[in-house]
Structures are given as structure tokens and as C-alpha cells.
Write a structure and sequence with these properties.
Elements (H helix, E strand, L loop, with lengths): L2 H45 L1 E5 L3 E5 L3 H8 L4 H30 L6 H14 L2 H9 L7 H4 L3 H8 L1 H12 L1 H6 L2 H11 L4 H9 L4 H12 L1 H16 L5 H10 L5 H37 L1
Antiparallel strand pairs: 1-2
Helix pairs in contact: 1-15, 2-15, 3-8, 3-10, 3-13, 3-14, 4-10, 7-8, 10-13, 13-15, 14-15
């Protein structure tokens, strides 16, 4: 067999081996290119242009001016961005911790357990998108005890005046902790099912208490699921329908003096902050899981 025939045989072999898989991936690849890659690339291109919309889109290359204006001329965007990030840095661990505690209780065997699991998951179905916006417009998301018991001076005393506004905003959104923890609870419950019951029986025979079992077995085994829930919660909260940063980006999209170009630049700055936060979470939990595997 000559070299040309050998190459043709190898190509035929690879096509027969990988062709079926690529054929199944083709619809996803087409959808990714049309609905993700092209819009994202176009958005990045517009971020470096001043875009005027008339009968057609007119582009004027401005380089990094839109990004500079976001921090030097826009008096609203940097403040909203920093404030919202401070709130989310408190909300994310609170939601994950709440989901972990609730999942530990729901993982126990008691009558009607499936009913309580369904109750904690119901807000995920109903409190989404326009429904959530309407609920907040009607005042359902407010917590009245903050004003009734005048908690602001107490928070200022023990937390500090510079963090009082952020902490009070988080406390006022306590309802969101219930509404945005359903998926995380299910992920934790599914994670607990991966821990063999024989491990708990062995440590119980050795005289370990439930408290010891949690710190030595349950928590280390739950690290991958804590990391997953952290990432899910970050993305979920940063795409929150009432997010003031997203609202500011949308407002600038339709202004004559800013338009699509400036709004795209704001969106990419927002994405960069989220990407850095996700990278930090992955780095921290990745190191912890590696250390755990080395010790094991």
C-alpha cells in the first residue's frame, strides 16, 4: 500500500470513528455559532466603537474610550458596580451556607420528607423573571422587621458605619435567600447520596459523634458540591432581574449620547469582574480539593 492509499484509509477510519459523534454535535455547534459566538463577538466589536442607529448601524472606532468613560465620566456605573459586588460577596456565602444547613436536615429520614423538599424548590419555579419583578414591585420581597425593630443603629455599632448600608441591604433581601437556595439544596442532597452509608457506620462504631462525622466526612466530601453551588449562585445572582448594574447597562443602550457601543463596554467590564470572581472561587476550591485528595 502506497502513502496516498494509507492516508486515505486513515482518513476513512477517523471519519467512521468520529463522524457519528460530530454529527450529533453539529446542531449544538451551529446553535453555539449563531446564538453565542457571533453575538458575543459583535458585542466586543461594538465596545470599541461609537454606534449610531438609524436606518442602519453606523460604527465609529473610538478604541478604549468607552471603557475609560465608564470609570472617569460615568458617575453611576462604578458606584453601582462596587456596591452590588459588596452585596453579592455577602449574599453568595450566606445562600450556600443556608442551603447546606437545610439540605443536611432534609437528608434525614422523617415522615413527609419529600413534601418539605418540594416546598424549598417551589420558589425556583415561580419566583423567576417577570414574576419575581412583579413580586418585588408589590413589596413581597421586603422584610418589615428591619424598620420595626430599628436594627440599623445596632448594625452600625457592631459592623461599622462603612459597611452598614451593605449589611442592611443584604438583610432586607433575606427573602432572596429562601427563593434562591432551592437548586443548591437539591445539589447538596444529591451530593450527600454519593457518600457510602458504610463510612458513617464505621465511624459510628469507632465512637465518633454526628458532629465529628460532619467535619471529618460530610464536609470534605461536599467540597466539590460547595464549589459548584458557589459558581451557580454567583451566576444566578449576577443575572438577577432587578440587578441595578444590568438596568444601568440597558438604560445606556437606548440613550442617544451613549448607545450600543458604550453599553457593550459596560457589559464587558461587568463580565470581567464576574469572571475574576469565578476564577478566584475555582482557584480556592481547586487547591482545597487537591489537598484533600493528597491527604486521602
Amino acid at each position: 500500500m502506497n502513502a496516498k492509499s494509507r492516508k486515505r484509509a486513515e482518513l476513512k477510519y477517523h471519519v467512521s470513528r468520529y463522524g457519528t459523534g460530530l454529527l450529533f454535535m453539529l446542531p449544538w455547534m451551529i446553535g453555539f455559532i449563531l446564538f453565542v459566538l457571533i453575538p458575543v463577538s459583535w458585542s466586543l466589536f461594538m465596545a470599541f466603537n461609537k454606534v449610531q442607529v438609524g436606518g442602519t448601524f453606523k460604527y465609529e472606532w473610538v478604541g478604549l474610550r468607552n471603557f475609560r468613560d465608564a470609570f472617569l465620566k460615568d458617575n453611576i456605573f462604578p458606584v453601582e458596580l462596587i456596591t452590588y459586588f459588596q452585596q453579592m460577596l455577602l449574599m453568595v456565602p450566606i445562600i450556600v451556607l443556608f442551603a447546606l444547613l437545610i439540605s443536611l436536615m432534609l437528608n434525614q429520614k422523617f415522615p413527609g420528607r419529600f413534601i418539605f423538599r418540594a416546598l424549598f424548590f417551589l420558589p425556583v419555579i415561580f419566583a423567576t423573571g417577570q414574576v419575581l419583578s412583579e413580586l418585588f414591585a408589590q413589596g413581597v420581597g421586603d422584610v418589615p422587621f428591619l424598620e420595626q425593630y430599628n436594627l440599623e443603629p445596632l448594625v452600625k455599632k457592631y459592623v461599622g458605619a462603612q459597611f452598614t448600608e451593605t449589611v442592611m441591604d443584604v438583610l432586607s433581601r433575606a427573602v432572596l435567600i429562601l427563593w434562591y437556595s432551592g437548586v443548591q439544596i437539591l445539589i447538596f442532597i444529591a451530593g450527600f447520596q454519593t457518600i457510602p452509608a458504610s463510612v458513617y457506620e464505621a465511624v459510628r462504631i469507632d465512637g465518633a459523634t454526628p458532629w465529628d462525622s460532619f467535619w471529618k466526612i460530610t464536609l470534605p466530601a461536599s467540597m466539590p458540591f460547595i464549589s459548584l453551588n458557589m459558581l451557580y449562585t454567583i451566576i444566578d445572582l449576577f443575572t438577577f432581574p432587578l440587578n441595578p448594574v444590568l438596568a444601568h447597562i440597558k438604560d445606556n443602550m437606548f440613550k442617544a449620547n451613549t448607545g450600543y457601543g458604550y453599553a457593550s463596554a459596560l457589559a464587558w467590564i461587568y463580565f470581567a469582574f464576574i469572571f475574576i470572581l469565578i476564577a478566584i472561587v475555582l482557584g480556592v476550591f481547586g487547591r482545597k480539593m487537591k489537598r484533600g485528595s493528597v491527604r486521602a
